[in-house]
């Protein structure tokens, strides 16, 4: 599909230049040099030892650490690992195609269903903490995640405990884990607001940010009803069918947003200028009981100086808004770095690639590379659990992915437009939360803004 200026251009085609490297440590000066070696191509007449794994990864600044990892793997197995930096638009259909492609945006490889090897039932797929975190396209597991962000709702357990001690409380909820639906959440939020002076809080929710650069409500939370729409309509999220939405689940999102705005730590009129940082601080200082957040938000929360909400007083539960798919109480997972294997590679190359990804997500060297060198959060049971559970959010996230009792689901955050869309969404939602417009008008504004971002030449003021 052809995306316009308001979306980052993802249609450029770029051939991949393979640069296998040997890293040499010079004892005299302690520096590294790169020595190109000839690329070995696998043909029917060549011996099996010429097998290699060709990896295209998206980060130019990480090319040396990937080269080091490849050298270590070759030393261990004898199989050369050739790495290259892939440009946006490069795919499995390029000349001298890679064996493995790493990518962030699921729109980057529109023909993934045809060109990707089915990873279902492979060792790396079976090691996922939850198989629902794999990217499924055209009936196949086309890619597995090497990095994830999990969305949910942070809860101040101490404030909730204080509420349960009140003699005149109405809500029957005694712990964060007792919240099983939006109805439960709404009842509790309204109760907390009624007793906020006794509980010494400014609001049940950390007031939302509807500023254009706000991520919590204008990206993460907003992606949930839109992802649910694509799922229920069986939309191919790697194709061109995502250029328009109905936003029919917008009512659920607006119900949650209204609840947070009406029971928040700031007035509704201030939300369009409020920041995510202010919301995080409200929660960290105990001014609010609830804060929508993600695993990626922990560093910002942990860095709040003199925060009064301690690690052991933070719970993390699903973010309920009343979507049909919330009945099993799962969390939403965003894949931030995906790995796919070429369907046109030889059987030997595919097996070698699967073996490499399995080693990457299970061996001491591979997991250290993912967790420390790249600072990723890969959702695999084969990684050291202590490394995946370093704070209250990641600990709870890992539990949701591994307990087998929740229906977790992917959130397609990468599909949300950039450019003018966040500002338009923030404006529409701000008008709704201050009573200046209706739910239908707010929903239609999102439909129009989405279409304008993807297909500006076909969009008029009437939508």
Describe the structure.
It is a single chain. The protein is of the alpha/beta class and 463 residues long. It has two domains: 21-150 and 333-408, D-Maltodextrin-Binding Protein, domain 2; 151-331, Periplasmic binding protein-like II (D-Maltodextrin-Binding Protein, domain 2), CATH 3.40.190.10. Helix content is 35%, strand content 15%. The chain has 16 helices and twelve strands. Strands 3, 4, 5, 6, 7, 8, 9, 10, 11 and 12 form a ten-stranded mixed β-sheet that branches. Strands 1-2 form a two-stranded antiparallel sheet. Helix 15 packs antiparallel against helix 16 (439-454). 46% of the residues are buried. Residues 1-15 and 20-49 have low confidence and may be disordered.
Question: In CATH terms, what is the architecture of the largest domain?
Answer: 3-Layer(aba) Sandwich
CATH fourth-tier homologous superfamily of the largest domain? Periplasmic binding protein-like II
| DSSP strand tally | 12
Main pleated sheet: 10 strands, mixed
Uncertain runs with pLDDT below 50, 5 residues or more? 1-15, 20-49
User: pLDDT average, as an integer?
Assistant: 87
Number of domains: 2
Strand residue content: 15-25%
CATH class of the largest domain: Alpha Beta
Query: How many helix segments?
Result: 16
Shape: globular
Distance between the termini: 20 Å
The portion of residues assigned to helices is: 25-40%
Radius of gyration, taken over Cα atoms and rounded to an integer in Å: 24 Å
Structural class: alpha/beta
């Amino acid at each position: 599909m052809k995306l316009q200026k308001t979306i980052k251009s993802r249609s450029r085609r770029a051939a991949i230049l393979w640069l296998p490297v040997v890293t040499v440590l010079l004892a005299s000066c302690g520096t590294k040099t790169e020595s190109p070696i000839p690329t070995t191509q696998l043909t029917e007449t060549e011996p099996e030892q010429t097998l290699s794994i060709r990896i295209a990864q998206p980060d130019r600044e990480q090319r040396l650490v990937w080269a080091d990892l490849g050298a270590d793997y070759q030393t261990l197995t004898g199989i050369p690992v050739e790495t290259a930096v892939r440009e946006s638009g490069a795919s499995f259909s390029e000349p001298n195609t890679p064996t493995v492609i790493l990518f962030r945006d699921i729109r980057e490889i529109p023909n993934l269903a045809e060109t990707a090897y089915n990873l279902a039932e492979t060792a790396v797929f079976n090691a996922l903490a939850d198989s629902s975190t794999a990217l499924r396209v055209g009936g196949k597991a086309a890619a597995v995640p090497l990095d994830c962000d999990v969305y949910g709702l942070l809860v101040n357990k101490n404030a909730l405990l204080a509420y349960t001690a009140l003699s005149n409380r109405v809500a029957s909820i005694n712990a964060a884990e007792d919240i099983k639906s939006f109805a439960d959440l709404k009842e509790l939020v309204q109760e907390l607001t009624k007793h906020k002076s006794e509980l010494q809080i400014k609001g049940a929710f950390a007031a939302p940010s509807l500023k254009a650069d706000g991520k919590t409500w204008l990206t993460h939370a907003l992606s949930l009803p839109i992802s649910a729409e694509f799922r229920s309509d069986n939309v191919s999220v790697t194709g061109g069918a995502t250029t328009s939405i109905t936003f029919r689940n917008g009512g659920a999102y607006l119900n949650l947003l209204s609840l947070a705005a009406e029971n928040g730590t700031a007035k509704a009129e201030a939300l369009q200028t409020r920041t995510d940082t202010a919301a995080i601080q409200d929660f960290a200082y105990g001014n609010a009981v609830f804060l929508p957040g993600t695993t990626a938000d922990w560093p910002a929360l942990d860095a709040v100086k003199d925060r009064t909400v301690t690690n052991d007083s933070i719970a993390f539960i699903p973010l309920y808004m009343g979507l049909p798919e919330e009945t099993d109480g799962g969390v939403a997972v965003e894949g931030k770095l995906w790995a796919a294997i070429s369907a046109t590679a030889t059987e030997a190359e595919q097996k070698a690639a699967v073996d490499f990804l399995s080693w990457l997500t299970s061996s001491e060297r591979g997991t250290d590379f993912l967790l420390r060198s790249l600072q990723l959060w890969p959702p695999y049971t084969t990684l050291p659990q202590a490394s995946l559970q370093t704070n209250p959010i990641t600990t709870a996230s890992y539990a949701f992915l591994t307990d087998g009792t929740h229906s977790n689901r992917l959130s397609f955050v990468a599909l949300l437009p950039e450019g003018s869309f966040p500002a338009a969404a923030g404006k529409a939602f701000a008008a709704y939360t201050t009573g200046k417009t209706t739910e239908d008008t707010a929903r239609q504004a999102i439909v129009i803004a989405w279409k304008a971002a993807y297909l500006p030449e076909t969009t008029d003021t009437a939508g």
